[in-house]
């Protein structure tokens, strides 16, 4: 089995890895080999709305922080296969999976995975979870972080503030305060009108400062968001008024277009935690309404430390109903995307659907897929734009749905 480093290298290094971008690719691959996402930043409600799954579906998704793979269990699938290049992400998924399966009840799960900051979580881990972890996940969680404590202590210390993205959000809060703003002020809003007013007063001005304009032009500054050099180029193509303006508008979408008490992504961005007192403010997999289905179907979730293409090469023809690729294709060159979609097309059942995000607004398939492959699939740009408008994470430029003809 390939190591995380080798898998990440195989995904990041491609025909475009040369010159200055080659150096950037190597830096990003090294940076991405640790825990990046303690929670995922794609909206599973939008995914399920797009897919319209029937019970018994076979689903392939990228794991990332594991939240969405777990949420899809609410759709009563036959199987959810969660693939990731990064073993730390699969360790996070395994932690969440075993917590849902083995903790005594919903309240214990919410304390462990929702609050993720209680001293009693050490007892919950040792009594109910530790012995059920996979070998690789146990090695990750029992090993020590830079603090000198085993990593399972994350769940007594705001687990979602750890990982590169969690740390990045913390730095963003400090930066905005330095610029005279305050991201936490957003949580005082009682309605959408107040959200807009507070955003304009306490958050938006930081994006227009000379310092942020300089930072926004540096690819290295965005590595903790999981944005590789190739995706950074796509962002620049969409940033007609400068990257600082593009980032401000996406933050505005997150801050102003959805009620904060119905947006777990905004809760993390502005409060650096989940509001466990409001069910609608929780990620889908932690909402009590879905808990019985998740617990009933928890063993239908299967983790795989490999690439999407390599996993699909092991699957039978016409065996998969749904594919969720997050933004992985933004990393790929034409050869990699073609190899992936050859396997997608072979393994897709009639009517199968593929959902993915892009850093920019455009889908890469029309430019990169051979015509014969693309002809097997249909998409509706207007419907894709409507789907994108429902994604509460608001960090991407596009959401795309393709269906097998």
TrEMBL record:
Annotated InterPro entries: DUF3419
Pfam families, sorted: DUF3419 (PF11899)
Taxonomy, superkingdom: Bacteria
Name listed for the protein in its UniProt record: BtaA family protein
């Amino acid at each position: 089995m390939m190591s995380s480093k080798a898998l990440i290298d195989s995904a990041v290094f491609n025909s475009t890895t040369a010159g200055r971008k080659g150096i950037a690719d190597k830096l990003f691959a090294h940076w991405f080999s640790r825990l990046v996402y303690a929670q995922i930043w794609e909206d599973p409600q939008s995914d399920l709305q797009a897919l319209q799954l029937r019970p018994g579906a076979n689903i392939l998704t990228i794991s990332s922080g594991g939240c969405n793979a777990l949420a899809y269990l609410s759709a009563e699938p036959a199987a959810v296969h969660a693939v990731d290049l990064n073993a730390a992400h699969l360790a996070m998924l395994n932690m969440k999976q075993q917590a849902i399966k083995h903790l005594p009840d919903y309240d214990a799960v919410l304390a462990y995975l929702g609050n993720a900051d209680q001293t009693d979580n050490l007892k919950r881990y040792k009594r109910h979870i530790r012995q059920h972890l996979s070998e690789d996940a146990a090695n990750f969680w029992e090993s020590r972080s830079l603090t000198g404590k085993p990593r399972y202590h994350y769940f007594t210390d705001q687990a979602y503030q750890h990982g590169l993205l969690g740390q990045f959000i913390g730095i963003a809060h400090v930066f905005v305060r330095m610029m005279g703003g305050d991201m936490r002020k957003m949580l005082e809003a009682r309605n959408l009108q107040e959200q807009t007013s507070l955003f304009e007063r306490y958050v938006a001005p930081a994006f227009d400062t000379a310092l942020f304009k300089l930072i926004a032009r540096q690819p290295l500054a965005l590595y903790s968001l999981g944005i590789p050099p190739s995706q950074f180029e796509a962002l620049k193509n969409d940033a007609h008024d400068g990257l600082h303006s593009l980032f401000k508008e996406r933050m505005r979408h997150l801050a102003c277009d959805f009620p904060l008490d119905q947006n777990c992504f905004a809760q993390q961005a502005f409060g650096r935690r989940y509001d466990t007192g409001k069910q609608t403010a929780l990620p889908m997999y932690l909402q009590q309404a879905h808990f019985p289905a998740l617990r009933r179907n928890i063993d239908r979730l299967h983790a795989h430390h490999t690439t999407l293409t390599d996993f699909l090469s092991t699957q039978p023809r016409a065996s998969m109903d749904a594919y969720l690729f997050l933004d992985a294709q933004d990393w790929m060159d034409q050869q990699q995307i073609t190899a992936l979609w050859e396997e997608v097309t072979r393994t897709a059942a009639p009517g199968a659907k593929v959902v993915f995000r892009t850093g920019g607004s455009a889908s890469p398939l029309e430019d990169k897929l051979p015509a014969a492959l693309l002809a097997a699939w249909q998409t509706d740009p207007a419907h894709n734009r409507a789907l994108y408008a429902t994604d509460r994470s608001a960090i991407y430029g596009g959401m795309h749905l393709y269906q097998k003809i």
